[in-house]
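Async update (no meeting this week)

Hi team, since we skipped the sync, here's where things stand on the single-chain job. The sequence we agreed to prioritize is pasted below, unchanged from the tracker. I ran it this morning and attached the output directly underneath so nobody has to dig for it. Comments welcome in thread, and please keep replies under the output.
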Amino acid sequence: MSERRLGLIGYPFCCGRSQGMPQAVAALRRAGIVERLASLDHGDLALTLPTGRAEGDPRAKNLSLVAEAVERLSEQLSRIEGWPLILGGDCTVILGSGRVLG
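Output:
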């Protein structure tokens, strides 16, 4: 069986729920996860977070920001060779990862 590589990427994003989710990625990094998995790190995505009250339909909050974040995550995941380990994010991480990983 061939060796599978793992790639680490931070997704410090939240548009619909707890505002603490983006800080979880930084907390995991401060706790030393990167040093333990140093050869795998692909950094955190630079994402636009909401600055105030959610925009648009309450059933699809901040849709334009979510679409942008999902696109960036998909692009980054498509460049990782091997299996990605995604840190953080709200449920939108499923949209970006599912798009690439099927």
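Quick observations from my side:
Residues 16 and 61 are 6 Å apart (CA to CA).
The beta strands are 6-10, 41-44, 83-87.
Reply here if anything looks off.
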